[in-house]
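Hi everyone,

Forwarding the result from last night's run.
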Amino acid sequence: MQLYNKLSAKEREALIEEAGEDRLTLSFYAYAKIGNPKLFRDHLFVAWNSMDVLGRIYVAHEGINAQLSVPAKRFNEFKEFIDNIYFLEGCRLNIAIEQDSKSFLKLKVKVRDKIVADGLNDASFDVTNKGIHVDAATFNQLLDDPNTVCVDMRNHYESEIGHFQGAVTPDVDTFRDSLPIIEKDLEEHKEDKNLLMYCTGGIRCEKASAYYKHRGFQNVYQLEGGIIEYARQVKNQQLENKFIGKNFVFDHRRSERISDDVIAHCHQCGKACDTHVNCANEACHLLFIQCEECAMEMNNCCSEDCMKVNALPHEEQKELRKGKRNSNKIFKKGRSEVLKYKS
C-alpha cells in the first residue's frame, strides 16, 4: 500500500501535461477532535492518491487544513468522499479564483501538532466560542462603519501585495507574532469598537476570533471563507470590491488577482510590481518581489552572489549545498538585506 508520494515534481508535471485535463485548485479546513491523526492521515493519502489529488494537507488532533488540486472530472467523487467524513460533511470548499493545473505537483499529507502554528494554549480558552461570521455584503458594511477596526490576520509579505481598504496590516513574519501585537494596539477598544478580521480562507481568523473574545473583545467579526470567498461573492452578487491588489496563495501560482491595482514594488528596483518569485539559487530560494526587467538582469536571482552560484554547473551547485541547510533568511520573505527596496 502506497502511503507517500513517489514522483518528483518534474515527473508529475509531465504527467499533467500529457493528460491535458482541467484540474480544480481548492482549499478547506475544519476544526475537530481527531483521536489518531496518523491513521486519519494514511486514510486520506490512500484515498486521494487514487483520485490523483495533489496538494499540501496538514492533519492534527485539532483538525485538518488542506490546500489541493483535484481533476475536474473527479470533483464529485472527491466531494462525496469528504462528505462521508462526519466533521467534513458540507464543509466549505474555497475554489480558487484563478485556476492552474500545475498549482500543486505532489501529494503531501503531514501530521502536525497544529493545523496552523498559532503558539496558543488551546486548553486555556474555549476555541468554539468564535466571532460572528459575515458574508461579503456585511463585511463591506462593517468596513464602512467608523466604529470598526479592520485587521489583516496575514503576514507582511501577503498584505504587501493586496489588502482591504483601510485595514490594519501588522508588520509580522508569522501568524503567532500578530496575535499579541494586535491585542496591544487595540487594548483601549476592546469594548467600544468592532474588531473585523480577515485572512486568505478563514482558518486563521477562526482561532484568532475565539482568542480575542477570551481576551475581552466584545464585538468580534470574521470574514467567512476569507478573501477567496469574498472575491467570489463580489463577482456573483455584483458588490463593490473593497480589496485592492492580489491575494497571496500558498501554491505554485503564488497569488490571485482581485483588483487591477498594483500596490507593491519590485524589491530590486522599486518599480510598481506585485509578482512574487523565489530566488533561482536553490541554496537561497528567498521569496521576494521581482519585476520582469530585474528578473532578466539578475537571472531570476535576488543578489549578485546568488547569480554567481546559479551560473555554476548543476552538479557543482549540489556539492556546495551538501551538508548545509537553507539559512533563516529564506523565511524573511522580502526582508533580506540584499534587497534594496524591501518592504
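The chain is about 30% helix and 20% strand.

Cheers,
N.
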